[in-house]
Task: inverse folding
């Protein structure tokens, strides 16, 4: 997938994978633990967050840091995040 397709995919599911992606991206290089993601996502259940996380991993936008046990953006994810932010800025103008 290309950056444009990934941005569109995230925008199409703004309350699902888009929200999880944004939460991880906004955390930066520190990454985010699954428990923190669940809390910020606002779901009483784990499965919606896990489904979104797996979809983002399958799309190579995030990865699990095995050492710190948290999720971070891949290099592709960082490109998508930059494009996502640019598109938001353009819409504001």
Result:
């Amino acid at each position: 997938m290309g950056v444009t397709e990934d941005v569109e995919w995230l925008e199409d599911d703004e309350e699902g994978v888009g929200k999880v992606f944004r939460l991880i991206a906004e955390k930066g290089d520190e990454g985010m633990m699954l428990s923190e993601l669940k809390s910020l996502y606002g779901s009483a259940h784990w499965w919606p967050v896990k489904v979104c996380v797996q979809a983002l991993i399958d799309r190579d936008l995030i990865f699990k840091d095995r050492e710190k046990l948290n999720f971070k953006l891949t290099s592709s994810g960082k490109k998508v995040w930059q494009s996502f932010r640019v598109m938001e800025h353009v819409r504001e103008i």
User: Anything to note?
Assistant: The mean pLDDT is 92. The domain at 3-92 is CATH 1.10.10.10 (Arc Repressor Mutant, subunit A). Helices lie at 3-12, 17-27, 34-41, 47-58, 75-92.
